[in-house]
Amino acid sequence: MKKSRITKASKKRLLVFGTISLFVIGYFLFTLTCNLYNLYKLSMSKNTFDTNLIELKRDEKILSSEIEKLKDPEYIAKYARENYSYSKDGEYIIKITDKETKKETKKVFDLNIDYNYIIYGGILTLILIFIYALKKKK
Q1: Entry pTM
Q2: In a 10 Å sphere around its CB, with 0-12 CB exposed, 13-18 middle and 19+ buried, how is residue 13 labelled?
Q3: Tens digits of residue pLDDT in 38-72
Q4: Boundaries of every domain in the chain
Q5: What is the reported pLDDT for 100?
Q6: Structure-derived torsion over alpha carbons of residues 73, 77, 79, 85, reported in degrees to the nearest 10
Q7: H or E element that contains 132
Q8: What DSSP line would sit under 85-98, residue for residue?
Q9: What is the CA radius of gyration of the chain?
């Protein structure tokens, strides 16, 4: 049986092309991860906009019914008496105010994390591990 010998030139070639291929694979994985994260953020903002759209359509229906009601002079008079303290002749206005205390909720943790830093840190860690492993082989 023949023993296959690996020459120094082929070891150098393997080291150079292996390193380059690992960096290329790392770059593609990084790009894929960034694009997936951006897609996730866009889908979350789409959900937010969809709920806002539903609320705005509901508000539009309420306001259009309010516009129809404001065409009636009796409704306008009632609205003015309720909201602007107008009164008919002989009526007295008594205001009753509610004194409610609002409890303020404090946020214990406010996490505004930029996930790009986490991705960059992970890739940098992988590169450092790879370099350490190469140095250890020598």
Answers
A1: 0.43
A2: exposed
A3: 999 999 999 999 999 999 999 999 999 999 998 99
A4: 62-92
A5: 57
A6: 160
A7: helix 115-137
A8: ----TT--------
A9: 35
